[in-house]
Amino acid sequence: MKKLEVFGVAKLKGQIRISGSKNASLPILAATLLSDKIISLRNLPKVKDIETMILLLKSLGSIVDDNKKKITIKNNKQSKTFAAYSLVKTMRAGILVLGPLLAKFGKAKVSLPGGCAIGTRPVDIHLKALSKLGVKYKIIQGYVHADAPKGLIGANIKFPKISVGATENLIIAACLAKGKTVLSNCAIEPEIEDLINFLIKMGCNIKWTSKRTIKIEGVAKVNELNYQVMPDRIEAGTYLIAAALTEGNLKVTGIDPKIISTEINILKKVGAKIIQKKNEILIKGSKKIKSINIKTSPYPGFPTDLQAQMMVLLCKANKKSYIKEEIFENRFMHVAELNRMGAKISINGNKATIEGNIKFEAAELMATDLRASVSLILAALASKGKSIINRIYHLDRGYEDIEKKLKKVGAKIRRLN
Ligand code: UD1
After folding, report:
1. CB of 39 closer than 6 A to ligand 1?
2. Span from the CA of 164 to the centroid of ligand 1 (angstroms)
3. Is the CB–ligand 1 distance for residue 109 below 6 Å?
4. Which residue's CA lies nearest to atom 22 of ligand 1?
5. Which of 48, 55, 321, 403 has minimal CB crowding within 10 Å?
């Protein structure tokens, strides 16, 4: 099994270019199913989740041509509506093919995404909302068997809770539904904005009518399209936190600072010096890190996907900090490993208390999920000596070329097979 070896203490210096966004690419890839024309996508990150989504599309009959610069998807012969457990189990975004398959064929059989280390992660909101568009469904042996006997029909849907995945699934489905759909209490993450841009360019009729309300007029057909996916704001946030943690001096390029203004403001509050430019961010970590209290929440709040990384940084703060995890209650698997490295973090329900002034100690560690894995790399960079991080397949799901990028800015990191 692959491992990472990291030697600390590191001070990251130099320039890192941000890759395409995984969380924007996945719903956009699912949305290509709406089309039977040729779709070209650029800037998809080379990570495992994207590979898995492409395998899923191929299993549904899409013809996918992946060259270095862009991927081309032809759906003129795509006709299958069955998404197997083997492809959906490792990647929750697999459920996003349900909406487009129902919109295109009026039926689908899609595996439930299955359990996940960060919590139960149900899809009831997706299913109830789809049923308002005329979908009848049953869950049999772990599969959603869904039918829309009269095709999808536009409706007014208010999500009971803000859900990124359900908002995406319903936007995609409603694009080909008959008539008007109004979705309210929608997630407004930049990745949703990117999905909407993609769909509009493909010929769909979508408008924001208020901050969390979207109006969609169904269309009969969509066009061919060449689209560039947005940069990965979580990857950018991860490297900015790494710089703040290691008293580094980094230029993070290829991302508009405006989409991560919440994160930038928090990093400034804890003491990092940040200069924002048009498409880049300069960050200088400070010796003194100030404590802060944070809660994760839907965009524009602080993202749950940066909670683990931020926790590592706060271990170095001058005083005690608190983090409240409001999206996934169990998303604290990194805590036990960080405590093995000398951190003093205690958990009570969804609240973590993080003692400051910690000197991390290098250790052999076990990665548990995507963002937890990267938090261990950050802690290892801040620890004196050699750390080994096992089970890094989690990391490969979402960070393109992470060792290469970190090595280029001075980290001593290598992959062991
Ligand atoms: C969530 C995060 C997203 C992050 C991703 C991967 C939010 C709002 N969403 O997106 O930023 O990139 O995880 O870590 O921050 N829920 C239900 N029923 C459903 C769907 C969701 O109860 O049918 C609950 C979830 O358990 C969770 C909350 O709603 O507590 C938000 O989930 P949702 O946004 O749908 O999850 P993801 O799309 O995976």
Report:
1. no
2. 6
3. no
4. 122
5. 55
Beta bridge partners of 137: 146
Provide the pairing of β-strand 385-390 with 364-366. Answer: parallel
Q: Locate 156 and state its tokens.
A: 């007014």
Candidate from 112, 121, 128 with most ligand 1 atoms within 8 A of CB, to mutate: 121
Q: What is the mean pLDDT of each run of 10 residues along the chain (417 residues)?
A: 92 98 98 96 96 96 91 93 92 94 97 69 93 96 94 98 98 98 98 98 98 98 96 98 98 98 98 97 97 98 98 98 93 95 97 97 92 96 96 91 97 93
Q: Catalytic pick from 116, 175, 204, 315? A: 116
Token output for 233? 């704001």
Q: Is-catalytic flag, 116? A: yes
SS3 content of the chain, % helix, strand, coil (to 5): 35, 30, 35
Instruction: Give the chain's domains with CATH numbers.
Output: 3-19+231-416 (3.65.10.10), 22-228 (3.65.10.10)
